[in-house]
Design brief:
By secondary structure, the chain is mainly alpha-helical. The chain folds into three domains: 114 residues; 147 residues, Intergrase catalytic core (hpI Integrase, Chain A, Orthogonal Bundle), CATH 1.10.443; 90 residues, no CATH class. The chain contains 16 helices and five strands. Strands 1-2-3 form a three-stranded antiparallel sheet, with no helix packed on it. Strands 4-5 form a two-stranded antiparallel ribbon.
Length: 368
């Protein structure tokens, strides 16, 4: 049974992160999910006495679940959970100093993933939707509105690079197809990561833009008000689109379900909707010719630095690495042929890698 005061202390922390720090409601939900593991681990023991609980939290959490599934929590889930738990105890030491006086800084620092929870090293597969994958999905014969909505989700996420939750909450008024731009401005309705605001642009891929335009012009813009959701809701039997002006938290999961369905019909391996954002970046990067274009790609996906875009999304595929290594030492024309056939990269990969290394070094110096 969960100790009542433990529950109240956790609620106080969530209230602090919500009202004082201003975390997004979806983030508060994640914190609560993570801190439930802490409450269940402590059981009836007051959290100020947590140092005496056996097994220690990093050991307990390896096999802990509160969603009914049998498999272990992933390493990243354990890592994030313990990060939140450490933040909670830091808060509790400051907010309730008398009750939490036995919780030391050194003990809090021990709340980190154990070696047993670390994943077995594996080769990391560079997974994303390629333009060929997307076009196979676009070639599926559309028989229902559900099919059409799933196809346009794929086209829009790939062309825009926006996050799925932004698409799920995007009003019609924020899509300016005449200028191929998206108004990702939270005050207008769309949800963005960390409430960032930006005007972003669609890739110029005519066949995908045609599908996006058909959806907007024929199916939603003429029937619904500008504040209605662009990714319109379906009625219960899926035969009609309905006007909705507010997207519930978690609606992005509907996009995932739609994409899974259309991938199955197209014979394309399903990956998460976020992998379309990844595909957007890889496709655009392969067409880039200079640093200005790379910077534009980074800003278009609302990253604060081109280094972030490169580190998180722009890892070279195994084939590209093989081509680069094979081309080392060759005369420039041959090296360009090996690297870039049809990709627009050639020597640019080597030039940009050097420039990105310089940027990383500059950021490291600034952080120090």
């Amino acid at each position: 049974m969960i100790h009542r005061q433990n529950y109240l202390d956790v609620r106080a922390y969530l209230h602090h992160m919500d009202r004082r720090v201003g975390r997004h409601p979806s983030t508060i939900i994640k914190y609560w999910t993570q801190l439930r593991h802490l409450l269940e681990w402590a059981d009836e023991t007051p959290l100020p006495q947590a140092r005496g609980i056996d097994p220690a939290l990093p050991t307990y959490i390896i096999t802990a679940r509160n969603d009914g599934k049998d498999s272990r929590l992933t390493y990243i889930t354990i890592y994030k959970t313990l990060t939140t738990v450490r933040a909670f105890f830091q808060f509790a030491r400051l907010e309730f100093p008398q009750r939490y006086r036995r919780i030391s800084e050194s003990w809090i620092e021990l709340l980190r993933p154990s070696r047993l929870s670390q994943p077995v090293p594996q080769l990391q597969e560079h997974r994303f939707y390629s333009i060929d994958d997307v076009r196979r999905i676009m070639s599926v014969s559309v028989e229902t509105l559900h099919d059409a909505r799933a196809q346009v989700a794929v086209a829009m996420l790939f062309c825009s690079g926006m996050r799925p939750d932004t698409l799920a909450s995007l009003p019609i008024a924020c899509v300016d197809l005449a200028r191929r731009r998206i108004l990702q401005i939270p005050s207008l309705g769309p949800r963005t990561k960390n409430n960032k605001a930006a005007i972003t642009y669609l890739l110029d891929i005519p066949d995908l833009l045609q599908i996006i335009s058909t959806w907007q012009d024929r199916l939603i813009a003429a029937r619904f008000t500008p504040d209605s959701l662009w990714y319109a809701t379906l009625n219960n039997d899926g035969t009609q689109l309905t006007a909705t002006t507010r997207a519930i938290v978690g609606r992005a999961s509907v996009i995932g379900d739609d994409i899974r369905m259309i991938c199955k019909k197209a014979g394309v391996e399903y990956r998460s909707p976020h992998k379309l954002r990844h595909g957007h970046i890889v496709y655009a990067r392969n067409l880039a010719h200079d640093m200005a274009q790379l910077k534009a790609i980074s800003q278009n996906v609302m990253h604060s630095s081109v280094v972030i875009t490169d580190q998180v999304y722009a890892a070279l595929t195994d084939d590209q690495v093989g081509s680069i290594i094979a081309g080392l030492g060759l005369p420039s024309p041959n090296r360009a042929r090996l690297l870039g056939e049809g990709s627009g990269q050639g020597d640019l990969i080597l030039q940009l890698t050097a420039l990105l290394d310089q940027l990383r070094a500059r950021e490291d110096i600034q952080q120090r």
